[in-house]
Design a protein that fits this description.
The complex is a heterodimer. By secondary structure, chain A is mostly beta strands. In chain A, about 0% of the residues lie in helices and about 55% in strands. The chains are: A mainly beta, B mainly beta.
């Protein structure tokens, strides 16, 4: 299995620009998660989906952030307009609910720098 | 929400030494994972261990859910063990990450 795939791996953009991060979960997994890692706040959950439906977006910081999952194999996290404080590493993770197991597997992350 | 405390925050070891990392959490959990974030930033699954004991090579983990703590043991440490170790418990799906233990193993 290829694991969770994220693109791009690095993104540098100017303040005010739209940024789109992409994620392909592990095939067959029914949960998808978006996390953000910063020095100040550590790793925090932004939003997660179950069977392509957003379940909890309480971690999304502002209306500038939006996430979609149009199908079981693709999700996007969009920031519009971007600000310097959005600079962080964004991770996507997926899991398969199997019995009582909820183990999550993480992608390599996208390092976003907003100048 | 669940509060997570990891200790020690920083650890420096000589290659070959053993160590124990601790994770305390405030509420009952159905899920607990340990991760290693390597120097390149990749999050690597170490253990899925909501309760009991598991071993994988030089690493083992124990979670005592009733007492709300988990331990990660690293034996015969190697320089490749360097990085940050995160504990992440949850009641269901929303992993809550601790602040991590930063480990440096010197040759």
């Amino acid at each position: 299995d290829a694991g969770v795939i994220q693109s791009p791996r690095h993104e540098v953009t100017e303040m005010g620009q739209e940024v789109t991060l992409r994620c392909k979960p592990i095939s067959g997994h029914d949960y998808l998660f978006w996390y953000r890692q910063t020095m100040m706040r550590g790793l925090e959950l932004l939003i997660y989906f179950n069977n392509n439906v957003p379940i909890d977006d309480s971690g999304m910081p502002e209306d500038r952030f939006s996430a979609k999952m149009p199908n079981a194999s693709f999700s996007t996290l969009k920031i519009q307009p971007s600000e310097p404080r959005d600079s962080a590493v964004y991770f996507c993770a997926s899991s398969l609910t199997s019995g009582s197991s909820y183990e999550q597997y993480f992608g390599p992350g996208t390092r976003l720098t907003v100048t | 929400g669940i509060q997570v405390e990891q200790s020690p925050p920083d650890l420096i070891l000589q290659e070959g030494a053993n160590s124990t990392l601790r994770c305390n959490f405030s509420d009952s959990v159905n899920n607990l994972q340990w991760f290693h974030q390597n120097p390149w930033g990749q999050l690597i699954n170490l253990f899925y261990i909501p309760s009991g004991t598991k071993q994988n090579g030089r690493l083992s983990a124990t979670t005592v859910a009733t007492e709300r703590y988990s331990l990660l043991y690293i034996s015969s440490s190697q320089t490749t063990d360097s990085g940050v170790y995160f504990c992440a418990p949850t009641g269901f799906q929303k992993l809550v990450f601790g602040t991590g233990t930063r480990l440096l193993v010197s040759p």
